[in-house]
Write a structure and sequence with these properties.
Rna Polymerase Sigma Factor, Chain: A; Arc Repressor Mutant, subunit A
């Protein structure tokens, strides 16, 4: 359903800039959140999101409509974020990016969850950009393995290996920070996204 709507909007956007605005609105929040988690800076994320959308718009005439749009978008976003980070040579302070979104926990449980999320966020921020991107694509943006492979332009097996290595690296960082069971935090279930988001 999502891909069908994307295909319709892409075809319209190739002829009408206003249709691209509708397509951009569908993805702008998720795109901003991804870039914010990659860079740790709200202002940079806003600028980069605009840059990504401009690049997407300019490249849209060459985009094959039958190809999935979302992996292509994240490929561009990942490249833009990595190039930005390399140019700035910054350490990404994203400990607060993974703030708790509220639930029915006691104040103590909420504080513990919030601190765990901050710890995960800090650990992710210390990872190399390519591993950080694959963790965010899988656990936050909930891209499938196939979509990650498309976004990274690598074979499916390579994408799985990269994600596995990223998880191991993150688990090591979390263990070093005292997270008791980091494998639970990084399990490959749909609810993992809510743990990390």
């Amino acid at each position: 359903m999502q891909q069908q709507l994307d295909e319709i909007l892409i075809e319209e956007a190739k002829q009408d800039p206003e249709a691209f605005g509708v397509l951009a609105q569908r993805y702008q929040d998720r795109l901003f959140n991804f870039l914010y988690r990659m860079t740790g800076n709200r202002h940079d994320a806003e600028d980069l999101a605009q840059d990504v959308l401009i690049r997407v718009y300019r490249a849209l005439p060459r985009f094959r409509t039958e190809a999935p749009f979302r992996p292509w978008l994240y490929k561009i976003a990942t490249n833009v974020a990595i190039n930005h980070l390399k140019a700035k040579r910054v350490t990404v302070p994203i400990g607060d990016v993974f703030a708790a979104s509220g639930s029915f926990n006691s104040p103590e449980q909420s504080a513990e969850i919030h601190e765990t999320q901050r710890t995960i966020g800090r650990a992710i921020s210390e990872m190399p950009e390519n591993y950080r991107a694959v963790i965010l694509m899988r656990h936050i943006e909930e891209l499938s393995y196939e979509e990650i492979a498309q976004a990274l332009e690598v074979p499916l097996g390579t994408a799985k290996v990269r994600l596995h290595r990223a998880r191991l690296m993150l688990q090591e960082k979390l263990l070093a920070r005292g997270v008791k069971d980091p494998s639970h935090e990084l399990s490959d279930r749909s609810e993992t996204a809510s743990t990390l988001s």
